[in-house]
Amino acid sequence: MTAEIDIYGVYVPTLLALMVLALPLSVVVRRLLAWCGVYSFVWHRGLFDVALYVILLGVLSSTSHWWLP
Fold first, then answer.
1. 20 to 30 Å CA-CA from 57: which of 35, 47, 50, 68?
2. How many folded domains does the chain comprise?
3. Domain with 61 in it
């Protein structure tokens, strides 16, 4: 993973960019899980949502070397 991403002359840490990218992805996955009824099997929805966000961030971070310059 590179240290920084250049966005129009502003250097942004890669992890921050991945966190911003993981947030809307997490919202989409949460809505899909709510629509499917998965949350009826979850004990604590807030903890589940945080864990889901961390997993998505980890997936984005581990695959970022393929699609980031």
1. 35
2. 1
3. 4-67
